[in-house]
Amino acid sequence: MGLSFTVATHAQVNVNLSGSGDNANKFPIVVADFAGTNGAEIANIIAADLTRSGQFDVKRINGVMSTDSTGTPNWAALSEAGGGQNVVYGAVSGNTVNYHLGDTAQQINIHSLSVSHNNVRQQAHKVADAVYEQSTGVRGIFATKIAYVSGSTLYVADADGENAQSVTSGAHIISPAWSPDGSRIAYVSFELGKPVVFVQNLSTGDRTTVANFKGNNSAPAWSPDGSQLAVALSMDGLSNIYMINSTGSTTPRKITNSPEIDTEPYFFPNGSGLIFTSDRGGSPQIYRTGINGGAASRITFSGSQNVSGKISPDGSKLVYTSMRGGGYSIAINGLGTGADRLLTSGPNDQSPSFAPNGMQILYTSNGRLSLVNADGSFNTTLPGAGNVTAVVWGPFTEQK
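RESULT FIELD:
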């Protein structure tokens, strides 16, 4: 059988995505409409996901790819029409998507997978994850979730900013933090007239007060095993880092003991220590210390202020908000070398958070959800509400 389709860029098929980045080093790939109900929508989402990674030069085919009686595509016609070596195609049957990644040069399918989910967007995201991993060797993050605060509401959304759902609202909320298994979010609410740390179960909506001590309770960060939270407490009049049980059932254990302000803790992925923000040197900078406290060493030096530090999933990099030239930009630091670089140009870029594969960073830019690749090669803005003040990328929730 012949092929019946036309080629379009992602913009021509109403994929809501724009960004910057050079196509020279990207994987060329063609995404065809999937056969069956919602097939075109699924293809559009896959194309948008791959484009948003900044690692693919994506072309869309408007139409289902025809095959012969054995299910073999017309590789030659596809290659001529699409211009990419690899092609994504497949079919939808109920809640199952059967996908194939074909190599038009070798005229073979190099990967096939059946994905089952009752949500069309998640079907597409899971296929995009498979394509991404097959192409790059790195696990895809398109089926993960993000959380962000807009106004006085905490939302959870798909990684592309779509399908946002309210978790809680009605009071000033800051500092959302995902549990390592993705089932709970810790956050700070001012509903009791001062900052108090809560942990909320996303499935049931139940929440627990885990830090409501004298003074301020803020900046929760989960230990890698999910059993503890590092928090900033001013219960003795000074803001220091403490460790508490994630259920709130233990007496706080003091980690830092500074006469200045210590806040914004974050664990190393292996649980060996943590970083935090402190103005003990005269201006807010990021320091590291052991899991039981002890001497702290400064790790940021460029920029008049460096705050909101996060460690990459492999423990090799630090991303943070850096004030330079009077504005805030996102910077990244190689922890082994100390070398740092700016990933964004500011002037109001804040609240960075690594994707669980470490390849991209979510942040706020002038109150909008934004993404930048960890190597600075690509950046884009996500759809969603404005007035975003805090963002955090959720973990992988399925075992590989």
